Amino acid sequence: MRCPYCGDDDSRVTDSRDTEDGIRRRRECQRCGLRFSTSERVQTTALLVVKQDGRREEFHRDKVRIGVLSACTKRPVTAEDVDRLADAIERELGTLGRAEIPSAVIGQMVMERLRALDRVAYVRFASIYRNFQDVESFQKEVEELLQARPASPELQAQLSLPFNGEGTEGKRRGGRKAASIRGKRT
Ligand SMILES: [Zn+2]
Question: Which of 3, 11, 78, 111 has the fewest CB atoms below 10 angstroms from its CB?
């Protein structure tokens, strides 16, 4: 099994257990020493994800996992938390009993769970997921989030990131909104 971190294919199984729908194995890479887990499960019909442009691709739990993992960079979220989240999404999709599912639905499911897990990761995921195409609703989300709970300076710093990506023109326009968000705190 290829190591997701260094690509080496020499890994050792450290733990193996039955889960509800298959077998989960914990592995340790013999080259870089990092741990990862793999799961084997019975494949019935593949679930197809319908993307926004209408293209379809097979659902992979790992895509969910990797997306969430990158949103959780440097956050107090463990690999196990992320695994559990991806498992829950996969299970929930399974219970829907559908052959196809819009990617937006999966994104929404991830965001709901991530929101409960880590607020910063949630905002990051939301911003990546929405690809800044929908800045209005993203800002609304941020404002709701800040109203719900006073943000820490760290969260404030994270939240201000998306607004810095715009040009000088955008910065001036976006500056007012960013300022009003900050104003809520003081
Ligand atoms: Zn490795």
Answer: 78
Residues 76 and 15 in one domain: no
Helices (H) and strands (E) in the chain, counts: 7, 6
CA 56 – CA 154 distance, rounded (Å)? 38
Cα 4 to middle of ligand 1, angstroms: 7
Q: pLDDT digit string (tens) for 119-154?
A: 999 988 888 776 644 545 555 665 666 666 555 566
Tell me the residues surrounding ligand 1 (ion) with CB < 5 Å. Answer: 3, 5-6, 8, 29, 31-32
Nearest-angstrom CA–CA distance, 105 and 4: 27
Residue 31 structure tokens? 């080259």
Taking alpha carbons only, the member of 111, 116, 96, 112 closest to residue 49 is 96
- Distance (angstroms) between ligand 1 centre and the Cα of 121 equals 25
Ligand 1 centroid distance, CA of 21 (Å): 27
| Cα 9 to averaged position of ligand 1 atoms, centre (Å) | 8
Is 82 a domain residue?
yes
Q: What digits encode the pLDDT tens for the residues 102-125?
A: 888 888 899 999 999 999 999 888
Residue 57 in 3-state DSSP?
strand
Q: Which domain holds residue 96?
A: 44-149
